[in-house]
Amino acid sequence: MKEHFMFDAIEFTREASKMKAWFPLIAKDRTEDEIMAASRMNRGTEMNYGALTEKLFAILENDFDTPVHCNMEVLDVDPDTDLDWTVEVRDLKTKEEHQLEAAHVFIGAGGGSLLLLQKVEIEEKEGYGGFPVSGEWLVCTNEEIIKQHNAKVYSKAGVRDPPMSTPHLDTRYIDGKRQLMFDPFAGFSPKFLKEGSSLDLFKSIKIDNIPAMLGAFWHNLPLTKYLIEQVLMSREDRMDSLRTFVKNAKSEDWEIMIAG
Question: Where are the domains of the chain?
Answer without folding.
Answer: 1-43, 50-106, 130-258
